[in-house]
Amino acid sequence: MNTYFTDTGYLLLRHLRTTMRIPIWIAVTLIQPVIWLTIYGQLFRRVVEIPGFGADSYIQFLTPGVVIMTALFGSAWSGMGIIEDLSEGVMDRMLATPVNRAAIISARVLHAALTVTVQSVIILLFGMLLGARVAGGIPGFLAILLLGSTLGAGMSALSNGLALVTRREETLIAVVNFFGLPLTFLSTAFMAADLMPGWIRTLARANPVNWAVIASRDAMLGRNWGGIAGSAAMLAGFVLAAVWVSTQAFKAYRRSS
Amino acid sequence: MEAAIFCENLEKTYRSGTKGAKGIKGIKALAGVSFSVRPGEIFGLLGPNGAGKSTTVRILATLTRPDGGTASVAGCDVMEDPVGVRLRIGFVAQASGVDKWGTGRENLTLQAHLMRVPPAEVPARVKSLLDRVNLTEAADRVVKTYSGGMKRRLDLAMGLVNEPSVLFLDEPTTGLDPETRAALWQDLKRLRQERNLAVLLTTHYLEEADQLCDRLAIVDHGKVVVEGTPAELKARISGDTVALDLGDAGDAARMAALIAPLPGVLQATAEETRVTARVQQGATAMPALITAVERAGVTVRSSTMSRPSLDDVYLYHTGRRFHGEGGSQVRDHAAGQLPDPLAEPKSADKPAGKKGAEARQ
Ligand SMILES: Nc1ncnc2c1ncn2[C@@H]1O[C@H](COP(=O)(O)OP(=O)(O)OP(=O)(O)O)[C@@H](O)[C@H]1O
Ligand SMILES: [Mg+2]
Question: Which residues sit with Cβ closer than 5 angstroms to ligand 2, an ion?
């Protein structure tokens, strides 16, 4: 068991180093949220006047949604790294060492969670710059980071699992593009629940992205702390399920090679 | 003394599942491979593409499970104690396997940690390995900027980080320049001597097998077809090779048929304008063959005689010339980057190989 923690640490260090060496990636993943915030924040400024939003401004309503959306997309690409490792023989080299097998996935999941945290901080600060007030204060701010990184961890585990099964970048790209936007729009990231058609509202209830959006918006507005804790627990369950899936995928990969 | 590597009747069928999807029909990669390697021995696996060399190495390095047979490496059973095996081996795969976004030093350091080198010893170990493979200057550059040869040297260093007792090298010298290749051979010989290291390597270079390996096995269609020291293998195909150049392809085929039944001739084949005969006694057979050909009204332009080479051994056992058919058996990376050591005629009897080498330029 102690090799699990030390190996996760060694491998996490490697992934963090890689991210630092290609900082352009962090920038690229931030361009989109910044655009969402500036343009949508302006474009839909007046929709909050419709009853049902419950926020002082659309930017305040939108910022937590954009944080979660970035967490979703950022971590959904996490499987690309493992595909690169497979095709370049890095995975084989690692599997020929006594490295703790579970640590290989954990390090990637943890890396995704950390990356999401850094991105979330930046987006939140940018949102605040545009006038979004974090009514939940420091606890609210931290809760949003926690919710985002938890969702990111789960999505990254699923992404890695899918990568290990398909072993093709094209497939991963297709799946992320296919599911990414629906997962976002079947949530209250851009639109208040009360204003959504009934069927979308129903679907949204089963959507982990929506759990994270609702909870982080509550954290932003500093309300419903019990609900936030409940959502966090559900997201933790989602992470466990996702990690289980990716572990099975890893076992299948090792059996088939 | 206990064998460093021992395997018996290894079998492996790949289920082509994800790729072919042609039902359950699998690819039989190994059909009963057996051999053993002693500590301090350099053992070579030779064979055409797809023969099963990499599969054998992967099974022994615990990356793939065999469907049948047994194998042990450094005293540990590959199925029962894979972790024991992993701790005692170095593995350099056919594909590079270094993290290109890390520096050479970072790659080695991570590998050392994963190989359970005591953390306090890691920096010194890494430093001495970088020295050994001549990468000290490039140590803190990202591997992405390394040349193919530098990467391969780093691969080798990665395989030595835990001071293994058994080292697996899958085509270690493919893509290396001749000097680096020679340096690697020296290194392996030294390691064998100093540390009694057992080395299992696969190669597509017969010259390498001949000069470097203490023993070798030729693998074809998932089976070991012959095994022994290079000298033994050469001695085992009896006789000498006589080659006659006739200048006309039609004549060559006709003359091969004419020569084959002559006393002392074991085998005669026509290859373009040449007739190649394996004979019991080269010195006595050559004049007789030339006389027979000239009597049939065909002029012999030139003739050569040679002792069997490893190339002949390979031809004899696999039915293929090593680099026959213009190098189609050799992958591009093997052919493109290197002056092909086999293309140089050792005796005057390698026109096919020579032409192949030119065709590949
Ligand atoms: N992962 C795999 N899935 C399916 N088939 C495979 C797999 N790996 C190898 N094979 C097949 O098994 C056979 C043996 O392959 P192997 O890689 O062991 O050959 P090799 O002797 O190393 O060849 P080369 O000289 O080209 O490296 C080949 O027919 C190959 O196509
Ligand atoms: Mg191979």
Answer: B 53-54, 94
Instruction: Give residue B322's pLDDT.
Output: 53
DSSP A108-126: HHHHHHHHHHHHHHHHHHH
Q: What is the pLDDT of residues B283-336, one digit of tens each?
A: 888 888 899 888 888 888 888 888 777 777 777 777 665 543 333 333 333 333
| pLDDT tens for each residue of A51-68 | 777 777 888 889 999 999
What are all long-range contacts of A157-160, with beta carbons under 8 Å and residues at least 24 apart? A157/A105, A157/A109, A157/A239, A157/A242, A157/A243, A157/A245, A157/A246, A158/A76, A158/A242, A158/A245, A158/A246, A159/A75, A159/A76, A159/A77, A159/A78, A159/A79, A160/A78, A160/A79, A160/A82, A160/A105, A160/A108, A160/A109, A160/A246, A160/A249
Q: What is the pLDDT of residues B35-71, one digit of tens each?
A: 999 999 999 999 888 999 999 999 999 999 999 999 9
Structure tokens at B90: 């170095």
Q: What is the pLDDT of residue B341?
A: 37
CA B129 – ligand 1 centroid, Å? 31
Report ipTM (2 d.p.): 0.88
pLDDT on residue B105 = 97
Contacts of A20 in chain B (CB under 8 A): none
The residue in chain B having the minimum alpha-carbon distance to the alpha carbon of residue A90 is B97
Q: Which among B64, B100, B142 has CB closest to A257?
A: B64
Task: Return the minimum-mean-pLDDT range out of A111-120, A193-202, B59-68.
Answer: A193-202
pTM (2 decimals)? Answer: 0.81
CA-based nearest residue to B64, from B75, B55, B72: B55
Which of A93, A95, A99, A253 would you mutate first to test chain B, the one with the most B CBs within 10 A? A93
Q: Running DSSP on this structure, what letter comes out for residue B101?
A: T
> Which residues of chain B lie closer than 8 angstroms to A95, CB-CB?
62-63
Rounded alpha-carbon distances, angstroms, from residue B154 to A173, A233, B158? 32, 46, 6
β-bridge mates for residue B215, sequence order: B43
The structure tokens listed for B204 are 């597509």
